Amino acid sequence: MLVINENEAIIFDSPANDESSEELIKYANKLTWSIKAVIATHFHEDCVGGLETFNKYKIPCYASNQTIELLKNKESKFSKILKGFDNTLTLHAGNKKVYAAYFGEGHTKDNIIGYFPEDKAVFGGCLIKAAGANKGNLEDANVIEWPETVSKLRQKYPQAQIVIPGHGKPGGAELFDYTIKLFE
Fold first, then answer.
1. Are the C-beta atoms of residues 46 and 66 closer than 8 Å to each other?
2. CA distance 6 to 54
């Protein structure tokens, strides 16, 4: 998810590689957007694979402390240390707040979500499934906790109008229900 306000941008999940991250940064620069931060939603490569490029441009990169620990265990090394947080993080894009929060285990034990109240938009990342999607990569999943975690998310943001999964097309709050049913 890319949150833009007053020409300032917050990105949830880097592209999966440095080349795609470079493209995104050049695109933002062309549109005169200042990228204020990138927030990785979990430790898998599709969320952190391009962080090194953001480091190269001196763009702050954030991840939960749990994600940082999992990356260390994978022996993932970055030229610049990721900025960590525990359960919640609040940043600003222009004069609007952007939130990142941990609700529990699901796709991974460290998956967080993003929320931009201005648009009532939730970035569920790989914790949320697109309509019609299958369960996907379960290598690091907690399929027992997954539906409960998404239920907490749905309860916290009942007004969500835009729900963005990690893969596939965005939808509305029905994606919460779809994901819950998929894992019950």
1. no
2. 21
> Taking the CA of residue 7 as centre, how many other CA atoms within 13 Å lie in the half-sphere pointing to its CB?
6
Partnered with residue 165 across adjacent β-strands are: 125
Which two structure tokens, joined as six digits, stand for 22? 């470079």
Residue-range domain boundaries for the chain: 2-183
Task: Give the separation between CA 11 and CA 38, rounded to whole angstroms.
Answer: 5
Structure tokens at 98: 């952007």
Catalytic site positions: 42, 44, 46, 107, 126, 129, 137, 167
pTM: 0.95
CB atoms closer than 10 angstroms to residue 32: 7
Q: Is the CATH number of domain 2-183 3.60.15.10?
A: yes
pLDDT in tens, 105-138: 999 999 999 999 999 999 999 999 999 999 999 9
Q: Which residues pair with 92 in a beta bridge?
A: 97
Is the four-CA dihedral 3, 8, 10, 14 of positive or negative sign? positive
Which positions ≥6 away from 66 have C-beta within 8 Å? 102, 109, 110
Rounded to 10°, the helix 174-183/146-156 angle is: 160
- Please count the CA atoms within 13 angstroms of the CA of 107 that sit on its side-chain side: 26
